[in-house]
Amino acid sequence: MAYWHGSLWATLDIAFDLSAAIALVSLAIWLWPNRSRFGTAGTPILVALLITAGWSLAVGSASASGTGMFLPSVAESARNLAWLVVIYRLFASDGRHASVAPIHPVVFALAFVELLHLGVDYALSRVVLDDNVMRVAFEFNVMFRLLVTVGGLVLVHNLYAGAPRDVRSALRWPATGLAMLWAFDLNLYTIAYLAARWPVEIAAFRGLAILVLTGCFTLAAATNRDELRLRPSRAVTFQTFSLLVIGIYLVAMVAVAQWLSYAGGNFARMIELIFVTFASAAALVVLPSRRMRGWLKVTLAKHFFQHRYDYREEWLRFTRTIGSGGQKALPLGERVVQSIADVFESPSGLLLTPDEQGALTLAARWNWPQVKVPAVAVPMRALGFFERTGFIADLDEARAGRTAHGGEIEIPEWLLQDAQAWAVIPLVHYERLVGMVVLARPQLVRKFDWEDFDLLRVIGQQVASYLAEHASQEALAESSRFEDFHRRIAFVMHDIKNLASQFSLLARNAELHADKPEFRADMLVTLRSSSEKLNALLTRLSRYGNGAVDKLEQVHAMEVTNAVMERFRDNPQVVLAETRDVVVTGNRHSLEQVLVHLVQNAIDASKPDSPVFLSLAIEGLNARFEVVDSGCGMSADFVRNRLFKPFVSTKSGGFGIGAFEARELVRAMRGRLDVESREGLGSRFIVLVPLAAATDIFQNMTSQDQKVA
């Protein structure tokens, strides 16, 4: 049985060594015309391959014949010396043999150890010694081999790790092959030193390490070597790394326990048990924790993998999307959503931006017409957390109740109920929330990781700066339009001044020539012409005031609605749906002017036979005036960006300040004007004015806000 067992290992040794020798010689022959791919190290690599092939044949021959190991030992020393020369030439290929000073003494020291080992081997082969001396000599020989293998591994590590980034691709496979060769020898000689004998079972597989070395140099010489890269999956790497951590932990725990048993004296066993108990408890608490696993995954992803994103490509695509112009380009809001959605291949999304009160409302939608967004998409109370932290919300995590900030974050119910809503990305500019992007679920859903968060924060900041700049430009343009309006008013005042001058001149002449028929006839013509000019001017301006309220007083709201209905008594379209006898604090003339403007706009937007409803009700501490029509309606973009913008009118000859002035008049009465509209369905204008009984409450709230400010 022992003979069969020994012959089995000898057979494996011969087979692997012979295969390795054949592979090495074949590689040397194939590499001969292509040795220039390794630069100045090409010829030394050929020599090292052939010497290694000779060493493999010597080891195989010794295993087959059962003769001494002097010849294989000499061949192994020659092999190591040849590969040390190769390493030195690889260092010289990028000039580091001159710039890295410790390379020379390390290579010379390892060469000296090999030569010393050759001398010891030669001396031992010439004399006959007893077993004790031979055992000591064996240990010295193994120590020499260990020194060379450790030194070789250090050189290989520095060869690759210290190389410039553009040179590493050429050194990757040669360094891997040499590391495999000497790593196997390191384990082999370590076991031999600890066991005080030659481990035949492990030595039989040395040929496998040579085959790996041959394969690595073959890949290094291949033309497509840059494409042949080991890319393990993140799951496999994480599991392997976890096992490595557990193994290191167990080894460390056993080592410390053994040290305590040697150094603990009489209480060694008790100290050892206490240590093992606490160490095991710590492992049970720390290793299964979700935070620990998450940290390990992030660490591995950062240091063991290339980045998921090609940041240059992502940046170019982002700038192309956000900066596209022309007549066919999407509006800025839709481009903002698209630029972020492209990162995750999301098919659609929404942009929410703050309204006048600070709550988020729908500003733009990109390829997502079916989602129903309420008038107040995200209330103002839910925005503080996003503004402070820039937290990117995974809605699947929020639906499952696994959000890390579950007690602080508030996700609107309409987002949680819509299964297509996938993520919420806040847009923060100078610590101020300028909007949010809601992304729809992509076809391939995955969990966010650190790289996603980093990229989204950078893109979110850029998008926020675009939105802030766009808002600043709109404010500047609005200010410019106001200046133009002031110039228009100056011309109007000039016309009025001319008319006033004509009336003054006419009055003075009437004192002198009133009794003349010709003067009276001419006076009638002048008066008629001036009155027509004045009426035309008043017609253009009669519906617009200065946007201010002179005096706030208690007003019966029912009288206002009745006055409005009286203005439209000849139009059967206008219907008073509901009214209440309530008293509000406001200005009667301004309130009537606002309602008349809203009713007239509703009539203009409706068909002749389509009713327009006016109603008055109570809502909390406010009187609620509603003007409802079923006309053409307005898009969300028009309501958001154009309805209340001054000097933007869809009517021919209109000033475009009616809606703007109506909103300002309502605000001057401490009220609010809201709009709900859908294209093709109609519009609802809601005017909220404080009740007279609630005036004191609003005044106290205003004074408290001023004190806080």
TrEMBL record:
Residue span, Histidine kinase domain: 491-693
Q: Which UniProt keywords apply?
A: Kinase, Membrane, Transferase, Transmembrane, Transmembrane helix
Tell me a Gene Ontology molecular-function term this record carries.
protein histidine kinase activity
Which reaction(s) does its UniProt entry say it catalyses? Answer: ATP + protein L-histidine = ADP + protein N-phospho-L-histidine
Q: Where are the transmembrane segments?
A: 14-33, 45-64, 103-124, 144-163, 175-196, 202-223, 235-261, 267-287
Q: Name one Pfam family in it.
A: GAF
**EC number(s) for this protein?**
2.7.13.3
Among its keywords, does the record have Transmembrane? yes
This protein's source sits in the domain of life called Bacteria
Among PROSITE patterns, the record links this protein to: HIS_KIN
Which SUPFAM superfamilies does the protein's record reference? ATPase domain of HSP90 chaperone/DNA topoisomerase II/histidine kinase (SSF55874), GAF domain-like (SSF55781)
- Does Lipid metabolism appear among the keywords? no
Protein's name in the database:
histidine kinase
Q: What is the lineage of its organism?
A: Bacteria, Pseudomonadati, Pseudomonadota, Alphaproteobacteria, Sphingomonadales
